[in-house]
Amino acid sequence: MNYQNPFIQPYGGSFGQFPQQMMPAPQQQVVRVNGENGARAYAIGANSSALLLDESGTMVWLVTSDGAGYKTVAPYDISPHKAEEQKSWTDLESRVKKLEELMGGKHDADTGNPAAAAKRPAESD
Prior knowledge:
Layout: E1 32-33, H1 35-41, E2 49-54, E3 59-65, E4 71-77, H2 89-102, H3 114-119
Parallel strand pairs: 1-2
Antiparallel strand pairs: 2-3, 3-4
């Protein structure tokens, strides 16, 4: 035993210190409710907010409370995200051909460049 420092404990720590333990991370979950009644029944503390997924439709409920604990419930519509389709040169070429057909097939015959034909002033009838 160390008589020099009275705060050294026999297990190796100093006075008031205990071995550090790893605390598990809190579990995260999506809160699910059924309709507006379920969102209004959700218990929430003062100065808090929560986003609740409605199982009965495609919406979420934003529940907020003020300092006195009065709740406000607001619905928001949600829909699955659809990735935008990648455009290719063949898509662009087919669109230009369709535009040429709609404009009566007029194009720059000398160069074969439809963009040059678009710059040319319109011919009067």
